[in-house]
């Protein structure tokens, strides 16, 4: 209050003590207006500087909180090069309804990719519940079904707590918007030998970026093959968490092996759902093919080039949250001859 008080004292002193302020001539009135204009301008500039300082402080606090929630991934975990990014549909926010995490464990490198129903800041609570549970149980559960069960329980507790906070009743009902909230989840486990196992709850399956073109008919299944880019479709996924209870049996999908030089490309549906001015969806498979066609490149370079194309297609930020995660096998071990390639996958 010191500066505003000083400016106010200047204005009052001028009006009461300055002889010029007591005169009624045109020159005196112009001088008086100039003094009060200067005082008002000074006060507004002071208030503006204070608001800017407060805004910068709020952004620093929000950035620190968002960084803890969706913390930056290390560039490399157990021989896998990692690149990831997330774009929130809410301007000014670096975290929205999409989530990802990669953690090296004694059971292999475990990955979660998810997408909360809705987007932006309203979905952050669910993101925190899922990521917090994943980070806690990923080291303790020896099998992926155990990890998924714990995520389902964490999601259930989160929805129940929100229902109690938002409604007087303690249970969920069909009129409660919390009852309609769910999250799609893709769980992956990449072993030291490159074997990939997965559980998918309503999430888009990843793409495989090959080290070379590979045979066009190597997949032998319903996948979409575009040169060095292959969509890895492994059948019907499980229901999203929070929408329906998980079935009693959770069969792990054995996806073959991620060979040295190959890359897994994980994404949320905000990537493929991004539209241009004519309402056309973003052609993800084609864009990936164009990006990697010149030859081997780092995951960060592929990610940067793809995001450039995505933002250009959407004419700016997409209307939904976007998250992308790339895992490149940079290990030295050659695959065993008897093991299958990623393309030769099977589910029990």
General description of the model:
With 348 residues, the protein is α+β, with helices and mostly antiparallel strands. The protein has helices at residues 2-17, 19-22, 26-69, 124-137, 144-166, 269-272, 284-292, 299-314, and strands at 76-77, 80-87, 98-105, 108-116, 183-190, 195-201, 207-209, 225-226, 229-231, 253-257, 263-267, 322-329. Strands 1-2-12-11-7-9-8 form a seven-stranded antiparallel beta sheet. Helix 1 runs antiparallel to helix 3 (26-69), helix 4 runs antiparallel to helix 5 and helix 7 packs across helix 8. The protein starts with a helix and ends in a 19-residue tail after the last strand. Residues 215-226, 337-341 and 343-348 have low confidence and may be disordered.
Beta-strand residue percentage: 15-25%
Shape: elongated
Averaging pLDDT over every residue, what do you get?
A: 78
What's the tally of helices? 8
Rg over alpha carbons:
28 Å
Kindly state the number of beta strands: 12
Structural class designation: alpha+beta
Strand neighbour order, sheet with most strands: 1-2-12-11-7-9-8
The portion of residues assigned to helices is: 25-40%
The biggest sheet, with number of strands, parallel, antiparallel or mixed sense and barrel status, is: 7 strands, antiparallel
One letter per element, helices H and strands E, the order comes to: HHHEEEEHHEEEEEEEHHHE
Question: Gap between N and C termini, in Å?
Answer: 71 Å
> Which runs of at least 5 residues are low in confidence (pLDDT < 50)?
215-226, 337-341, 343-348
